[in-house]
Design a protein that fits this description.
The protein has one domain: Transcriptional coactivator/pterin dehydratase (Gyrase A, domain 2, 2-Layer Sandwich), CATH 3.30.1360. It is 42% helix and 23% strand. It contains three helices and four strands. A four-stranded antiparallel beta sheet has the order 1-2-4-3.
Length: 93
């Protein structure tokens, strides 16, 4: 099982991910797109990436907004895997 990060490690990692927030042991971002189709295209890009990483986010879609939440359920909080996947997601347009 992945190792939980300490609060200091979480804060250090969070500084690098400026668009992400940490709340309740979860890493979150909301992205806004021009319309529903663009939002779905973005989500589709996440599928292969997260499947190959073996780390699956919670995804909420509301018309042109996509909210992504990362946490390592098995570990009960944030691990390095969450931040690794967040960095890759941040690079997707």
């Amino acid at each position: 099982m992945p190792q939980l990060l300490t609060e200091a490690e979480i804060q250090e990692q969070a500084k690098i991910l400026s668009d992400w927030t940490v709340k309740d042991s979860k890493l979150q971002i909301t992205r806004t797109f021009k319309d529903f189709i663009a939002a779905i295209e973005f989500v589709n890009k996440l599928v292969e990436l997260t499947e190959s990483a073996g780390h699956h986010p919670n995804i909420e879609i509301s018309y042109n907004k996509v909210k992504i939440t990362l946490t390592t359920h098995d570990a009960g909080g944030l691990t390095q895997s969450d931040f690794d996947v967040a960095r890759v997601i941040s690079q997707i347009n």
